[in-house]
Amino acid sequence: MGRGGCNKGQGWQGKGNVGAQSVGNGKAEGKPDVLNTSALAVIPPSSLTKDSSFDFESTKESVTRLSNYVWDATAQSRRPTIRIQTLPNAYQSDQGPMKLVADQAPLIVDENLTHLPDDPTAPIYRAVQAVHPDFDFRGVDVVLDSNTIRKLWGFVRGDCYATATVTEDGCRDPSFMLKVDTFGVGGPLIFTRVEPRVRIPALPNNFGPAFAKAVAAPVNEPHGEMFYSITTACLGQIKLLVRSEVDAGDYASEAPSDFAVSNLGIGEGFFGASSFDCVLQGAHFDGTFVEVKTKRAKYVGEVDWDAILMQMLFSDTGKLVLGLQEKGWFCEPSEFSFHQVLDKANKRSIDMDLARLAMLFRRIADVVERSGGSLDICCGGKPGHNLVMKSRA
């Protein structure tokens, strides 16, 4: 299927016009009514069957780190700026029990949409191209972020609650919408999330960011922006280019304190010039990426190990740090390796769902090829809801 050399097979050929992407700003209930509009294709989750040749271990072994970046909070430029090839916050492994205050600041749903609402995938292209100038983007089948994978995986397994949008009345809306564009003829499909809001009020009794700050600290700098890692991974015969948020890093050696910095100038994305600046920081991270999670201690039995494993898989994250709390009182954080998380997850379900996810990407690619243009993908997000694909003018 993929052109990236993961396995033998025929890759898809994307066709159609390449244009600037746009992001909707409407409320969640304002998403297109998928039941009352013409559709190019409707995919029921039950129509996706398991590919018996799918191999989880091959997918895990295929994950390769390419680059990373942060949005620079201290940039002097009037335009948003990214620093490429930088360092994640350093995980502090000696934390004991602690008392934390619930988060008060609004939560950012997607920082890339905040800075680049018209071209949020552009930093992926620029960060990879800056570190690997000869990287063959046409050898990739799909470009997307890890949250998009989670949304599509939620559709496949019939549970989109983990990526539900918090509405203005405080309810959770599991529906989602994605945009799909092509990177020229024969190029990858570019998936872009459409979020009704890029910021939401802090949820009641939410300690996620507070706990992340308590167990990880910025390296060599007084600020700690969200760190984005970019990897390639082979999902069966499909090669993915994935951007993931990484909470922290467990350093194998002392973090470098001095590295070359060069100004790369204006940004560039899959669809040409984009309105951001970029700097190549040139730092090399040597260590293990860390995923940080919190859970009320009384609900420890409800930890979704499958969902955590999915997050760790495509970002090449090797450690989970879990903070169990009641009313802000945290026990000593628990650490789990990737393989320990895998042991707790339902391996059989993961295999089946990843294989069905690969089939879903093939189905979407077929519709793009037949339609010759860009698509809008919508889903109600509840069990049994279909995925609906429509042509975008």
Structural summary, described in words:
This protein has 393 residues and is of the alpha+beta class. It has one domain (28-392). The protein is 22% helix and 31% strand. It has helices spanning 56-62, 111-115, 122-131, 146-157, 208-215, 305-315, 338-344, 347-371, and strands at residues 41-43, 64-71, 81-84, 90-91, 98-99, 107-108, 142-145, 165-166, 172-173, 176-182, 189-194, 199-200, 216-217, 227-235, 238-246, 248-251, 262-269, 272-280, 287-296, 317-326, 329-330, 334-337, 374-379, 387-392. The protein has a twelve-stranded mixed beta sheet with strand order 1-24-23-10-11-7-15-14-2-3-18-17, sandwiched between helices. Strands 5, 16, 19, 20, 21 and 22 form a six-stranded mixed beta sheet that branches. A two-stranded antiparallel ribbon has the order 4-13. Strand 23 and strand 24 (387-392) form a beta hairpin. Helix 4 (146-157) crosses helix 8 (347-371) and helix 6 packs antiparallel against helix 7 (338-344). The chain is globular. The chain starts with 40 loop residues before the first strand and ends with a strand.
